[in-house]
């Protein structure tokens, strides 16, 4: 499973809010919803988040293996 938990800490550290993503960077509220619920997003969106936050991919998402 992919988790976007690191994203929220990185955003807080950089002073970027979801409001900023929506208003300044034109993210849709649906995209924010997918991020909050660990839904699928494109690699181009991951790239855009890394560019906005000036961070590495590891600061946006983490892979959590299933224990099946």
SSE diagram, text form:
Elements: E1 2-3, H1 5-14, H2 18-23, H3 29-36, H4 43-53, E2 62-63
Antiparallel strand pairs: 1-2
What is the gist of this entry?
The protein is built from 4 helices and 2 strands, in the order βααααβ. By secondary structure, the protein is mainly alpha-helical. The radius of gyration is 12 Å and the shape is globular.
Percentage beta strand: 5-15%
Largest sheet: 2 strands, antiparallel
Q: What is the CA–CA distance across the termini?
A: 12 Å
Helix content: 40-55%
> What is the C-alpha radius of gyration, as a whole number of Å?
12 Å
Q: What structural category do the secondary elements indicate?
A: mainly alpha
Average pLDDT, rounded to a whole number, is 96
In order across it, which strands form the biggest sheet?
1-2
Shape: globular
Low-confidence stretches: none
How many individual β-strands? 2
The SSE string, one letter per element, is EHHHHE
Counting DSSP H or I runs of 4 or more residues, the number of helices is: 4
